[in-house]
Amino acid sequence: MHRRSLIGTALAGIFGAALPRLATPAHAQDAAPFGFDTVIARARAAAAEPFTDPRMALSEPFAGLSYDAFRAIRFRDEARVFAGGGGFQMDLLPPGFHYDQRVEINVVSGGVARPLDFSADLFTFGPNYFPYPDGRAPAGLGQGLGFSGFRLRHPLNRPDVWDEFAVFQGASYFRAVARDTLYGLSARGIAIGTAGPDPEEFPLFKAFWIEEPAAGATTLRLYAQLDGPSVAGAYAFAITPGTETAMQVDCRLFPRVDINAAGIAPLTSMYYFGPESRRDIDDFRDAVHDSGGLWMVNGVGERLWRPLRNPGRVEISAFADTNPEAFGLVQRFRDFEHFQDAEARYELRPSAWVEPAGDWGSGLVTLIEIPTDDEATDNIVAFWRPQEPLRAGVERAYAYRLVWGQTPGEPLPLARVAATRTGRAIVAPHEDRVFVVDFDLGQIDFETVTPRLEATAGEVKGLSVAPLPGGNLARVGFSFAPNGAAQTEFRLRLESAGRPASEIWLYRWSA
Question: Are 387 and 364 in contact (CB under 8 A)?
Fold first, then answer.
């Protein structure tokens, strides 16, 4: 059989009856084998040229759409990619709303890559927003446009339901869920200039290659080419959905210019308010946030917990480290009662944490908290900032495991922070602040624990620890007198028999 016919036969089983058409190069029979090295070579070559923004001039029916109208465009179920029997399926996403950058999407089968052609025929258009009685766009509309991304499906929660578990769309953003969770925070390929003096840059994943999954496959492999004014890059993902959805990520970066403010493995989330801070917020709910804290395991094995805040001004916290073990944005509250939101179900939002692989050297786990007046704005960013800037023309490589799930496992028998609360002192002097920090002791005997607290400014008064009802819980309480300080950093841990008995609670108070 001719190689071109063989490739066509192999690809025929990937799709359902109404499939996205595979573009066939003029010399497809001579197509070079595809691998991660192909993407690396493309990114390296792109970095040697000026960046070209792949924006599209949107046309009917994708131009001028509201958010609701854009959501009313659906990929046809019968057109799902890989619906012929693999362990995964894929929906392609349309352009429109603020998604106006063309994304090339390729399928890899038998080691050979083929691009998918865009067509408005692949989508249905909701009757409340489009004048198409049968939900189909008239022939010829949307010609010359391209996809904006894709979503991935797998029988995540039930064996007979193809649940959506990941989506790649918009700049270099992507999101994922694990079993029994709902979409919340996002990740992206790289952060550049976040909360800095210059405008933030948002490189994009301009091209993807998704490998055809075998029947019953539990891991999906895909590749992405990153491009932006300052940097090009190549990314490899191996994604395994389940109780935890794990992504093995390998990235190669090719800076066009020196980048002093790069963020590696960035995570983006939302923190509006919680019981520790809800000043001037009039809301029936007790808390509103996708993530509750920054969780870290530093290079010397210390476990740290930094509760998130919605500050009055942009605040940046940096935690110096060498070869960190893990960091992430974590949602620890898993009870409906903590949020009281029957629609958003914030208790089901996933956590996400990064487990670096190899030598990441010295740098900073960086947390950025931005003021927000609503829950629709992502105002929390966390990433690794290398100590050495990314230099123009110098390739950098990073590998890590990105995990989406409920909470990270804690192999050591350490108490965990369960809640943080603060408020104005009830008795004089009223300018003092009261803090209470609750710890879940696990198997640790309450009678053996002693709190140890440090503050960089001001005066700490009345440090105490008391048991709480409802489990093996301990509450550490203290008052704090700023004494004119504009800002204070707290560091608190429990000790037992002179040894660490808890993770370290970190907190910033600002006047």
Answer: yes
DSSP state of 213: P
Q: Helix, strand or coil for residue 4?
A: helix
Give the amino acid at 414: L
Q: Which two tokens stand for residue 272?
A: 């509006």
Query: How far apart are alpha carbons 449 and 446 in whole angstroms?
Result: 6
So what's the pLDDT on residue 326? 97
Q: Which two tokens stand for residue 145?
A: 């446009």
Q: Is the pTM of this model over 0.90?
A: yes
Q: Report pLDDT for 248.
A: 98
How many Å apart are CA 488 and CA 382, to the nearest integer?
21
CB within 8 Å of 431: residues ≥ 6 apart: 425, 481, 482
Question: What's residue 301's pLDDT?
Answer: 93
| Residue with the two structure tokens 């352009």 | 95
Give the residues of the chain that fall short of pLDDT 70: 1-19, 21-31, 411-412, 428
Strands 499-500 and 487-496: antiparallel
447 to each of 176, 207, 289, 495, how far by Cα in Å? 42, 58, 34, 11
CA distance linking residue 355 with residue 353, whole number of Å: 7
Give the span between the Cα atoms of 145 and 117, in whole angstroms.
10
Strand 351-357 vs strand 303-307: parallel, antiparallel, or unpaired?
unpaired
Residue 15 has a pLDDT of 44
Q: How far does CA 386 lie from the centroid of its chain?
A: 19
What is the pLDDT, as a whole number, of residue 3? 28
**What pLDDT score was predicted for residue 19?**
59
User: What is the total residue count of the chain?
Assistant: 511
d(CA 113, CA 104): 12
Phi, psi angle pair for 268, to nearest 5°: -130, 130
Half-sphere exposure of 180 (CA within 13 A, CB side): 6
Give the separation between CA 371 and CA 315, rounded to whole angstroms. 9
